[in-house]
């Protein structure tokens, strides 16, 4: 798999020169425009408190379990639409660039992430969060983190979300075939 140049895609625009430091499979996944589907496996752990279940429902987080995941990505010059299919459940989000950040609309919640690249992979760090346009305190989201990396020449992801009072909302991790 050849490493792509910095593409004019959403992640290429947001990351700029840092894009060139992405692991090969991560760079490949984010280098394509148009429609594509990736398949793999995922392990999902969900929180059990009432508040965690309500928050998870508001953002349409995947159900607990282990098994197949299919990720549909539709990308164009305006942004990307991702639909993650897990156990008959679809989690849809829209991504676009916003002032040097990556904005993700996930259900009722809008996240702005700072993307950073290090020797391990791509890290999504929460910058701001809004619900119904109302900005929420940043410190509430210290327990939200995502990373994309490569292991054994395979694209891997690890996403964890927990909130004060609610505890763990979801922790899902796995891999996708990226060719």
- CATH topology, by name, is Lipocalin
Strand line-up of the largest beta sheet: 1-2-3-4-5-6-7-9-10-11
Q: Tell me the β content.
A: over 45%
Overall structural class, as computed from helix and strand content, comes to mainly beta
CATH architecture: Beta Barrel
Count structural domains. Answer: 1
Q: Give me the number of helical elements.
A: 3
Question: In angstroms, what is the radius of gyration?
Answer: 16 Å
Description:
The chain is mainly β and 179 residues long. The chain has a single domain, classed as Lipocalin (Beta Barrel), CATH 2.40.128. It has 3 helices and 11 strands; from the N terminus they run ααβαββββββββββ. The chain has helices at residues 10-15, 24-29, 50-58, and strands at residues 34-46, 65-76, 79-86, 89-98, 101-106, 109-117, 121-131, 134-135, 144-151, 154-163, 167-176. A 10-stranded antiparallel barrel has the order 1-2-3-4-5-6-7-9-10-11. The longest helix has 9 residues, at 50-58. The radius of gyration is 16 Å and the shape is globular. The mean pLDDT is 94.
For this entry, give a set of tags.
single chain, about 180 residues, mainly beta, Lipocalin, 10-stranded antiparallel beta barrel, 3 helices, 11 strands
């Amino acid at each position: 798999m050849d490493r792509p140049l910095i593409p004019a895609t959403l992640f290429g625009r947001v990351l700029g020169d840092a894009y060139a430091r992405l692991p090969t499979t991560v760079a490949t996944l984010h280098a394509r425009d148009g429609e594509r589907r990736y398949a793999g496996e995922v392990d999902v752990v969900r929180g059990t408190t009432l508040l965690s279940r309500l928050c998870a429902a508001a953002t349409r987080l995947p159900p607990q379990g282990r098994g197949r995941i299919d990720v549909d990505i539709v990308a164009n010059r305006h942004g990307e639409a991702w639909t993650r299919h897990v156990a008959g459940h679809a989690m849809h989000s829209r991504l676009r660039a916003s002032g040097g950040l990556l904005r993700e609309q996930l259900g009722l919640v809008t996240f702005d992430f700072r993307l950073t690249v290090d020797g391990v992979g791509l890290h999504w760090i929460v910058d701001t969060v809004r619900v119904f346009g109302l900005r929420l305190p940043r410190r509430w989201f210290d327990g939200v983190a995502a990373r994309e990396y490569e292991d054994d020449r395979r694209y891997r992801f690890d996403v964890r979300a927990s909130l004060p009072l609610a505890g763990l909302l979801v922790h899902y991790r796995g891999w996708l075939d990226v060719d």
